[in-house]
Design goal:
This protein is an alpha+beta fold. The protein is about 30% helix and about 30% strand. The chain has 9 helices and 19 strands. The strands form 4 sheets. It has a 7-stranded antiparallel beta sheet with strand order 4-3-2-1-7-6-5, with helices on one face. A 5-stranded antiparallel beta sheet has the order 15-16-17-18-19, sandwiched between helices. A hairpin with a 2-residue loop joins strand 1 and strand 2. Helix 4 runs parallel beside helix 9 and helix 5 (about 280-290) crosses helix 8 (about 315-320). The protein is globular, with a radius of gyration of 23 Å. The termini are far apart. The model has no long low-confidence stretch (mean pLDDT about 95).
């Protein structure tokens, strides 16, 4: 942590940039509530949700250093609060330069499984590689075509454009290989099977691997446990998400008007039911939130830092609006699942 001496709302004060909060003359400002940082000359106006903000001035020659530290700490804290890649190392950082006078620069952060395009103010664009269908380049403009979402454009990276494109190509290739290896580790009949990280696929779309995929996920020791869910479902999709600790196989079971999300890991788990049959939209929501389903069902007053995602990300608001039920695996699970998928 580094401290800076200046003025807070005109009063001499020390300002300290911490990992989760800014200490502005004794007032602790959480980055997850720090919705805006506007710079006008040497005055820095900080907007807080839902309360009034404050103004930092008088930093002198350390003005730029303070902004650099604040941007880095605020960005990291808010990125985690937006449910993105917590615990994963950053692989590269790039600056998208302003395109016109008065525009702020935009920072692009690249991780093992995706990237974020982060303006100083406004909601970051979140781009998991699992949703990237293609990367197109036109000079210094790079367009990422996304599955089930609008494209995202990165531009004006200057001489680092080639480096950025090469990094994306390498990391996307690494992820494809890691997902393929994880499927093969579940069952050697799936060696050679390829699917996007976290994207669930119906057996009819898995080609020659369809039958083996269904059996590997729902057969063997899991058959009896999953039988009530499978019997109640009109359609099934099978997927695998690379998590920080280990891969997580899962399935999406669609009923008449609902879809259930079932994790197939060994940990204590629950079945999550949503009032939608749009499995593509639900799958996208799971990927966009790193499969942190707590953000979908916890009451607002229990979300903590994840309240940032619930109030700023359309995909989280949608998922919360269609969330219907969390069914724990107890003696009543089979009946509850059958009822939920009717």
């Amino acid at each position: 942590m580094d401290s800076y001496h200046g003025r807070v709302d005109g009063v001499p004060a020390s300002v300290t940039v911490g990992p989760q909060t800014l200490d502005a003359g004794g007032r602790m400002l959480a980055y997850v509530d720090m919705d805006s940082v506007h710079v006008a000359g040497y005055a820095i106006s900080i907007g807080m949700h839902p309360s009034d903000g404050l103004e930092v001035t008088g930093l002198g020659p350390r003005h730029d250093a303070f902004l650099t530290d604040l941007d880095a700490a605020r960005s990291a804290a808010r990125r985690a609060a937006l449910l993105q890649w917590t615990g994963r190392p950053e692989r590269g950082s790039f600056v998208q330069n302003p395109g016109a006078p008065g525009e702020n620069l935009v920072r692009v952060h690249v991780f093992d499984d995706g990237l974020t395009v982060e303006p100083r103010n406004g909601t970051p664009q979140i781009v998991p590689f699992a949703l990237v269908d293609s990367v197109e380049r036109d000079g210094y403009t790079i367009t990422l075509r996304l599955r089930s979402s609008d494209p995202v454009t990165v531009r004006r990276l200057g001489p680092r454009t080639d480096e950025f494109v090469a990094l994306l190509d390498r990391l996307r290739a690494d992820e494809r290989q890691a997902v393929a290896a994880a499927y093969g580790a579940i069952d050697d009949r799936l060696l050679g099977y390829a699917a996007p990280n976290g994207w669930a696929v119906a057996t009819a779309d898995a080609g020659t691997f369809g039958g083996a995929l269904a059996d590997a996920f729902c057969g063997g020791d899991r058959a009896a446990d999953l039988a009530p869910l499978i019997a109640a479902a009109a359609g099934l999709r099978f997927g695998l998400s690379l998590q920080v600790d280990e891969p997580m196989p899962f399935l999406l079971a669609t009923g008449r008007s609902t879809t259930a999300v079932e994790s197939l890991g060994d940990e204590a788990r629950a079945t999550y039911v949503f009032a939608t049959t749009d499995t593509d939209a639900l799958n996208r929501a799971l990927i966009m939130t790193s499969f942190r389903r707590e953000a979908f069902y916890l009451p607002e007053d229990q979300l903590g830092r994840w309240s940032l995602a619930a109030r700023t990300l359309d995909v989280v608001r949608w998922a919360r609006s269609v969330f219907r039920q969390r069914i724990v695996h107890d003696d009543n699970w089979a009946g509850a699942v059958a009822s939920a998928l009717q």
